[in-house]
Structure formats: structure tokens, C-alpha cells
């Protein structure tokens, strides 16, 4: 009788352990916890992403010292990002910053690369003309070749220097809209070639 109780007790304990093992999978629990906390699921070091058009033409290239993807919010942070935008029949824009993040296209927004801290955008034409834009932050929409900022912006274009409270730039159409506020107006200084 005692041995029957021992065998039944051991069987119940083994059944409970087996049930606990299959129902309480620690791997799936930790995966759910990480997803709920939005821990990163992907790291890339010194990586480059290239986006091509449907015709096989390179549209833009995004590189960074470090890419970190967060699955819950579906955004990717960027350490020292560098973005090269290619326009049809034009030289590329090279945009650099200390930090950034890539927000993918969704039903609610366009794909956007948000850049901040020491943002610099440079374009050098084949005729030697250089356009250099500096600001504290810049939102770039690579699919549209468009960028905007509501931070102060400084633009140097060979003999013209412009400062503004913000900027909307259509790189494809080569159209720049300079923004002003009550406290910060658009200011352009033109230096003639004889005074340089």
C-alpha cells in the first residue's frame, strides 16, 4: 500500500513537472516580456541601406555607425547617420548628423528619416556651385526628395548666405521655402564677386 502511494505521488509530481515544462515555456515568456518592453530586436554596425526605384535606379543610400531596430514601435535609431539623396539628372545631396531615426512608411505617414544634432546637407554641382545647409534638426522624406525643419537654418550658396527660422526644401524641383517668425526673420546677404 505504501509503495502504491509512493508510485502515485511520483507519477503526479512527474506529470505536474511535465505540464509545467510545456505550459510555462520560459523562452516564449521572455520573448513576450522583451516585446512588451520594446527591447531592440536587431542591431547592425557600420551598415548601409540602399533603396532602388521600380526601374532599378538607386534612389537613396542610408548608412550609419549603428542601426538599432525596436519592434514594438517599428522604428530604427541611427548613430552618426549619413543619407545620400539622388535626384534625376542632378548631383546628390549628402546629409549627415550625429543622431537620427528611421520611421518606415505606414498607412498614416510617409517614410521619414529624422536627423538631429549638427545636421549638415551639402550639394556640389559639376560647375563648382556648392549649397551647404546647417541646422539642429531635419526631417527628410527620401521618397519625395523633400526635407523640412522648424529649427534655425543657415544656407551658404557660393556668394549668398541666408539664415531663416525654418526651411522646406524640395530637392527634386530645386525649390526652397524659407520660414520666418515674429522674432526671427529671413536674412539674406549677397556678396558680389568683386568684394570677395
Describe this structure in words.
The chain contains two helices and 14 strands, in the order H-H-E-E-E-E-E-E-E-E-E-E-E-E-E-E. The protein has 196 residues and is of the alpha+beta class. It folds into two domains: 32 residues, no CATH class; 118 residues, lipopolysaccharide transport protein A fold (Sandwich), CATH 2.60.450. The protein has a six-stranded antiparallel barrel with strand order 2-3-6-7-5-4. It is elongated, with a radius of gyration of 27 Å.
Structure at a glance:
The chain is of the alpha+beta class.
How would you sum up the major sheet? 6 strands, antiparallel, barrel
Give the helix tally: 2
**Proper CATH architecture of the largest domain:** Sandwich
Radius of gyration: 27 Å
Protein name: LPS export ABC transporter periplasmic protein LptC
InterPro entries: LipoPS_assembly_LptC-rel, LPS_export_LptC, LptC
Keywords: Cell inner membrane, Cell membrane, Membrane, Transmembrane, Transmembrane helix
Organism: OM182 bacterium
Amino acid at each position: 500500500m505504501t509503495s502504491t502511494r509512493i508510485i502515485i505521488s511520483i507519477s503526479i509530481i512527474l506529470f505536474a513537472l511535465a505540464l509545467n515544462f510545456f505550459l510555462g515555456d520560459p523562452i516564449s515568456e521572455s520573448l513576450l516580456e522583451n516585446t512588451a518592453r520594446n527591447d531592440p530586436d536587431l542591431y547592425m554596425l557600420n551598415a548601409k541601406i540602399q533603396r532602388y526605384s521600380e526601374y532599378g535606379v538607386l534612389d537613396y543610400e542610408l548608412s550609419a555607425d549603428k542601426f538599432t531596430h525596436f519592434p514594438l514601435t517599428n522604428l530604427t535609431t541611427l548613430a552618426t547617420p549619413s543619407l545620400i539623396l539622388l535626384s534625376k539628372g542632378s548631383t546628390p545631396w549628402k546629409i549627415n548628423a550625429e543622431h537620427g531615426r528611421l520611421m518606415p512608411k505606414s498607412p498614416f505617414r510617409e517614410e521619414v528619416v529624422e536627423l538631429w544634432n549638427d545636421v549638415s546637407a551639402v550639394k556640389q554641382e559639376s560647375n563648382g556651385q556648392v549649397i551647404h545647409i546647417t541646422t539642429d534638426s531635419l526631417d527628410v522624406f527620401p521618397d519625395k526628395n523633400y526635407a523640412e525643419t522648424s529649427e534655425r537654418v543657415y544656407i551658404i550658396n557660393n556668394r549668398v548666405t541666408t539664415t531663416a527660422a525654418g526651411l522646406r526644401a524640395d530637392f527634386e524641383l530645386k525649390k526652397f521655402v524659407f520660414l520666418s517668425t515674429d522674432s526671427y526673420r529671413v536674412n539674406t546677404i549677397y556678396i558680389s564677386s568683386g568684394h570677395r
